[in-house]
Design brief:
With about 500 residues, the protein is an alpha/beta fold. Helices cover about 50% and strands about 10% of the residues. The protein has helices spanning about 15-25, 35-45, 60-65, 80-90, 105-120, 130-140, 150-160, 185-215, 220-230, 235-245, 270-280, 285-295, 300-305, 320-355, 360-365, 375-385, 395-405, 405-420, 425-435, 445-455; strands at about 5-10, 30-35, 55, 70-75, 100, 125-130, 140-145, 165, 170-175, 250, 255. The strands form 3 sheets. The protein has a 7-stranded mixed beta sheet, with helices on both faces. The longest helix is centred in the last third of the chain and has 34 residues, at about 320-355. The chain starts with 6 loop residues before the first strand and ends in a 33-residue tail after the last helix. The mean pLDDT is about 95.
Length: about 500
């Protein structure tokens, strides 16, 4: 083993342990540190035994074991624990040393930490890591951002351990990792990734409940459909694992039906929605996915409401095969809307925070290793390579054609679900967004009149130049004084 380690990793939970093993398997020497040293000992004597991994029993020994510039990756809970470890590290570091936060930190925290550590001569990198336990061990998607001077030192390690996808010759050599941008842009992109993940998961759940409660399909029948869909344009990691989950049985019955229908969340989907609200971007599908989890959490209320609130009992009498084809179309179209909304949030954030984001490269980073990897990420990369200024994925020729081709089936599924009383918040909000986005003359003119009527908030006119505002004394009692015009 080398006298000094290439990198240190703090935190020996699932992701930390597996990232360390991944690094060692690629020829790097790693120092492992955890606040509880017994976890370090157990790791060194267990999974890490015989590998190029050493343990440290203190922050001082961790820092002393590293080659310069020192590279220390934090794999700890986001928020205060990250700040606490940074404060413990600072007294032992030298100018040019690098601290990497590989957890799901809020991008605003990464913005702050980048500037704060730069003032102390240190380099901070906020890096999204996606792929879960298996990805961390075998190759995740990695999204680093922050102090760009750190990238040449991290690039050999991060690109070596990341997932690989095929180049133009079909060889698996393209790393799902590249530099994202300054400040907290890496964590921002990971946050949006997680928001899209929320949407994808909820869309699949809505397809599942339509199969189960409306079509009356068995677990084996549903498994066969998802397995088949995974050979089509819907091919993705989440569709693949859904088929696996539906196939898994306990005592001869699908295990999934024994799992309580209350979903947890760690906050990244909510952060995506809140950020979209701050930026003024309609992120309707992902917002509904977050609220669907919130609704699932009030299980007792839902059980009570089910015996009180009236509604139709789902009954299907049509062509099941034809409806499943329509459901496939609805799922594909809605998934595209989810990505379109996510990319719209990234575009607006880039303007707000002065980031130079490469949207095609982001799609490339998501093609392998991460939870939302799917076949049409190649098409997203092509769309932004063709038009780097593309304002919305739905305006790209490929995605426009795909979504247009799903129209009949998509509308049939949403209409049928509504008439049959099956809740499909994401499938329906995706369609509503699509219809709203393609509406040249929205009802917001009436809304502006209402605002001016009760609050003198003014309005613009169709027959006047944009930016010129007017106020009407609607009642004859309000006078000509108007409110200041501004947007939040």
């Amino acid at each position: 083993m080398k006298k000094t380690s290439d990198i240190g990793v703090v935190g020996l939970a699932v992701m930390g342990e597996n990232l360390i093993l991944n690094m060692a398997s690629k020829g790097f020497t790693v120092t492992a540190y955890n606040r509880s040293y017994n976890k370090v000992e157990n790791f060194i004597n267990g999974r890490a035994a015989g590998k190029s991994i050493r343990g440290a029993d203190s922050i001082e020994n961790l820092v002393a074991s590293l080659e310069t510039p020192r590279k220390i990756m934090l794999m700890v809970k986001s928020g205060q624990p990250v700040d606490d470890f940074i404060e413990q590290l600072i007294p032992h570091l030298s100018k040019g040393d690098i601290i990497i936060d590989g957890g799901n930190s809020q991008f605003e925290d990464s913005n702050r930490r980048t500037k704060s550590l730069a003032a102390q001569g240190l380099l901070y990198v906020g890096s999204g890591v996606s792929g879960g336990e298996e990805g961390a061990l075998l190759g995740p998607s990695i999204m680093p951002g922050g102090a760009k001077e750190a990238w040449p030192h991290l690039k050999p390690i991060f690109q070596a351990i990341s997932a690989k996808v095929a180049d133009e010759n079909g060889d698996l050599t393209v790393p799902c990792c590249d530099w994202v941008g300054s400040d907290g842009s890496g964590h921002f992109v990971k946050m949006v990734h997680n928001g899209i993940e929320y949407g994808d998961m909820q869309l699949i759940c809505e397809a599942y409940i339509l199969m189960r409660d409306l079509l009356g399909m068995s677990g084996d029948e549903m498994q066969a459909v998802f397995a088949d869909w995974n050979t089509t344009d819907l091919s993705s990691y989440l569709i693949e694992i859904t088929a696996d989950i539906l196939a898994y049985k306990e005592d001869g019955q699908p295990l999934v039906e024994s799992i309580l229908d209350t979903a947890g969340q760690k906050g990244t989907g909510k952060w995506t929605g809140v950020t979209a609200l701050h930026l003024g971007v309609p992120l309707t599908l992902i917002g509904e996915a977050v609220f669907a989890r919130c609704l699932s959490a009030i299980k007792d209320e839902r059980v009570q409401a089910s015996s009180v609130l009236a509604g139709p009992k789902p009954t299907f009498t049509g062509d099941k095969a034809a409806f499943l084809e329509s459901l496939k179309q609805a799922l594909l179209a809605s998934k595209i809307v989810s990505y379109a909304q996510g990319y719209a949030v990234m575009r607006e954030a880039a303007k707000e925070y002065d980031w130079e984001l490469d949207y095609g490269a982001i799609a490339l980073m998501w093609r392998g290793g991460c939870i939302i990897r799917s076949v049409f990420l190649d098409n997203i990369k092509t769309a932004f390579d063709t038009d780097p200024e593309l304002s919305n994925l739905l305006l790209d020729d490929y995605f426009n054609k795909v979504v247009s081709g799903t129209q009949t089936g998509w509308r049939e599924v949403v209409a049928t679900a509504t008439l049959q009383g099956v809740s499909v918040p994401c499938l329906s909000s995706a369609l509503s967004y699509y219809d709203g986005y393609r509406t040249a003359n929205s009802p917001a003119n009436l809304l502006q009149a209402q605002r001016d009527y009760f609050g003198a908030h003014t309005y613009e006119r169709k027959d006047k130049a944009r930016g010129e505002f007017f106020h009407t004394n609607w009642t004859g009692r309000g006078g000509n004084t108007s409110s200041t015009t501004y947007d939040v």
